[in-house]
Amino acid sequence: VQLVESGGGSVQHGGSLRLSCAASGFPFSRYGISWYRQGPGSAREDIVTIGTAGSAIAYADSVRGRFTASRDDDKKTATLEMRNLKPEDTGIYYCNRPRVIGLLEWGQGTQVTVSS
Q: What's the pLDDT band for 23 if we cut at 50, 70, 90?
C-alpha cells in the first residue's frame, strides 16, 4: 500500500494550489478518500472526505467554499484544489482512507505554506 501526496508549495494569502494523491496497493475505487491537514503544533485533522465515485463530499467548515475535492478512479488519484488560501491553511497535507473505515499507512505528505 502506498499513498503519495504532491503539489504543495509556498504561496501568499489568497493564492491557490492543487494537491494530488496517488494511491496504489489497495482497491482505490471501493473506498472513500479523505484529506487531512496537520498544522504546526496541531493534531492531524480531517478537512474533506470524498465518497466512492465522488458520490458525496463533506468539507470541514474551515475549508468549505474554498477547497474542492475530486477523484479519478481509473488513475487511482485524488485531487484537492485549494483557492483563497489563508495563513491558517499552513501545514502538511495527507490523503488516506476515512478514519471510520480504517487508516492505511501514512504517506510523507506535502507541505503547504501560506504567508500573510
A: very high
